[in-house]
Design brief:
The structure holds two protein chains of two kinds. Chain A is mainly alpha-helical. Chain A folds into two domains: about 50 residues, no CATH class; about 220 residues, MetI-like (MetI-like fold, Orthogonal Bundle). Helix content of chain A is about 75%, strand content about 0%. In chain A, helix 5 packs parallel to helix 8, helix 8 packs across helix 10 and helix 9 packs antiparallel against helix 10. By secondary structure, chain B is mainly alpha-helical. Chain B has two domains: about 45 residues; about 240 residues, MetI-like (MetI-like fold, Orthogonal Bundle). Helices cover about 75% and strands about 0% of the residues of chain B. The longest helix of chain B has about 35 residues. Chain B is globular, with a radius of gyration of 23 Å. The chains are: A mainly alpha, B mainly alpha. At the A-B interface, helix 1, helix 2, helix 3, helix 5 and helix 6 of A face helix 1, helix 3, helix 4, helix 5 and helix 6 of B.
């Protein structure tokens, strides 16, 4: 058996030509992969800096900053939409952390009866498309005066966001040792101080990741904002679609770049926390 | 304070949100699909909406298109993702760049992905221009139709572009936590490269990858924004059809929209059950 293993090792490592051919294939594969990942983003960036770019020119015949100047001009609808998107994403992050952190603590630290049902309820909204849910909510939101308002939009954004925050925090609390809290309590700290000085510093990295996921999921919502916002609440994705449909490619390109930036920024800030260890990473960009 | 009471207290806000917004939305949709909504004077439940939906050929066309898009894109993404994970597991120069691009892709909203595919693949898009540059085509109409086309190629490519990194990073995480031990044993028992791949690696990563697949499938099945921008108007995918019926000027179509939304939710629920069963049946490595 050992001999067979050795023979295999010899066969694999022995032939230099084979090794070189394999490495060539690998480089080809990596090159293709890189191209495939980057290529779709290239036209977006070029379009945003184009002034005129007609078929069949490979590159714009005239470059220009028109799209960017327009995007940041006070008369355009881009800045208000950017502000609304940030307010909605910020509100969603705040609420989802406020609600999701305690739930994550319960699920990560404790075993209790009915835990499977709770887990099912938490996972369900990650699989059932939010559109199917929001069509039913719409009528009630109209009656409650929540339709066409920023608050209404924040509330429906909680549906896709909260499960991911809860799942991240469950993972964080599964590796958390509550004994430290007991020690703080025995030294005379009240529960507010215990949470502030013991729990929060310990869960901080996880809290950051959960918050950033929440931000990105809210940031990219389209159809539920369209339904509940009723055209009164204009967020970036809605604006992006109306530009894309109107055929102003330069402006669409510039807006796409603006739209990608927060994700890029956050990735640079948190990439050391992101390991792809659980399905939660799938939540971003949804 | 008893521990059970404390757990309940921690879970209450999250359960409240999930029950009211998520289950409430589904429940209201269900009531409305039976045309039953006492608050607006509808007190006679009926099956009209379901009969109308299930006898409408357009519904079956849309369902078929949705399933075709989700199945095709999930299968392609899974195969590519496993290949990418195997590639990224080995060490090579520039590995960090590729991994970073994988993660970056996850943060890009599908809305932007759809716009990117529009600019890249349309008949006067970036690829068509490159085709012209190399003398492959002379005019836009010679470039293959991939946007608003019968086979939904642009939509599928967009999903593959987004889902490959998602499934790939999960597969990579499983491979890394698995270590080399199993392969070393297989190697010492005389298994060659392909035998190790098919009898050792693939069975070991299957549970985790399967769950990622289910999430990807459920997402693409219920997604709205990509087909809404770059898909054909007739037939369209099920979520877009439901949305169109809901926002139609003819308000009597609303119960049908709800019925379709619930069909989407039902298919997704079957997927959650599948997801949980897959999770429990296999040994977990992640």
């Amino acid at each position: 058996m050992v001999l067979a293993g050795l023979r295999e090792v010899a066969a694999e490592g022995g032939s230099r030509a084979l090794w070189r051919r394999r490495s060539l294939w690998r480089w080809l594969a990596i090159g293709l992969l890189l191209t495939w990942l980057i290529l779709p983003l290239v036209p977006l960036v070029i379009w945003s800096f184009s002034f005129s770019w007609f078929f069949p020119s490979t590159l714009p015949s005239r470059w220009g900053m028109r799209a960017w100047e327009y995007a940041f001009s006070p008369t355009a609808s881009v800045l208000p939409a950017l502000w609304d998107t940030i307010v909605i994403a910020g509100g969603t992050v705040f609420l989802s952390l406020l609600i999701g952190v305690p739930a994550g603590r319960a699920l990560g630290l404790h075993v209790f009866r009915g835990k499977r049902i709770v887990e099912f309820l938490v996972i369900a909204p990650t699989i059932v498309p939010p559109l199917a849910v929001v069509l039913g909510i719409h009528v009630v939101f109209i009656r409650l005066g929540l339709a066409d308002t920023v608050i209404g939009v924040i509330l429906v954004h909680l549906i896709p966001v909260l499960p991911y925050v809860t799942l991240v925090m469950t993972g964080v609390f599964a590796n958390y040792d509550p004994e430290f809290e007991d020690q703080a309590r025995s030294l005379g700290a009240g529960w507010v101080r215990t949470i502030w000085y013991v729990m929060l510093p310990a869960i901080f990295p996880g809290l950051m990741v959960a918050g950033l996921f929440a931000f990105l999921i809210s940031w990219s919502q389209y159809v539920i904002t369209l339904l509940i916002g009723g055209g009164q609440v204009q967020t970036l994705p809605l604006l992006l679609y109306s530009f894309a449909r109107s055929g102003d490619n330069a402006l669409t390109g510039a807006l796409s770049v603006i739209f990608i930036l927060p994700g890029l920024l956050m990735l640079l800030l948190t990439s050391r926390f992101l390991t792809g260890r659980n399905q939660v990473i799938g939540g971003i960009g949804r | 304070m008893s521990s059970r009471f404390k757990i309940l207290l921690l879970l209450t806000p999250a359960l409240f949100v999930i029950c009211v917004l998520f289950l409430g939305g589904l429940g209201l949709g269900l009531a409305r699909s039976f045309n039953y909504m006492p608050v607006i004077g509808l007190t006679e439940p009926s099956f009209h909406a379901y009969i109308a939906v299930f006898t409408n050929p357009e519904f079956y066309q849309s369902l078929g298109l949705s399933l075709y898009i989700s199945i095709t894109s999930t299968v392609i993404s899974t195969v590519l993702a496993v290949a990418c994970a195997l590639l990224l597991r080995e060490s090579f120069a520039g590995k960090r760049t590729v991994t970073f691009l994988f993660q970056l892709n996850l943060t890009i909203p599908h809305v932007v992905g759809a716009v990117a595919m529009l600019f890249l693949l349309s008949q006067s898009g970036f690829l068509a221009r490159i085709g012209y540059l190399f003398g492959i085509i002379d005019q836009p109409s010679e470039f293959p139709e991939m946007i608003y086309d019968d086979y939904a190629i642009g939509i599928i490519l967009q999903y593959v572009w987004k889902e490959t990194p998602f499934i790939g990073l999960i597969a990579l995480a499983i491979l890394q936590s698995m270590g080399d031990d199993y392969e070393s044993v297989a190697r010492s028992l005389g298994a060659n490269r392909w035998q190790r791949l098919f009898y050792v690696i693939i069975p070991l990563i299957t549970p985790g990858v399967m769950r990622a697949c289910i999430v990807a499938f459920a997402f693409t099945f219920g997604a709205f924004e990509v087909p809404y921008l770059i898909g054909k108007t007739y037939p369209t995918v099920l979520p877009v059809l439901a949305y169109q019926s809901y926002t139609d000027v003819d308000l009597t179509l609303r119960p049908e929209a709800m019925a379709m939304a619930l069909v989407i939710a039902l298919i997704s629920t079957i997927l959650i059950v599948a997801y949980l069963r897959v999770s429990r049946r296999f040994v977990r490595f992640d």
